[in-house]
Amino acid sequence: MADSKTEYYQDKKGEWRWRKRSTNGRIVGASSEGYLARKDCEKNARRDGGKDKWEFYTDKRGEHRWRALATNGRQVGRSSEGFSSKKSCQNNARLNGWPG
Where do the domains of the chain lie, and which CATH numbers do they carry? Predict the structure, then answer.
């Protein structure tokens, strides 16, 4: 993924999380849950998005968002912000592994 960089960090609970930043520094994706081990967090960030179920929806504010669900139904990724158009939302999802 040339258009973004993955960062790993520990949250307030001491759990590992990931987030992806675009070249302009904006967060374009983030983990949906924390992981006890950094290696598990890294594995989640590198997962093959083609096997996930991707959902696109409109939030309460009328903004477009996405979320990725693993084959076991657990949410494994989500948009970090709402988008004014569905196309912008889909472009952001592509940065995070959505096959299109």
Answer: 4-95 (2.30.29.80)
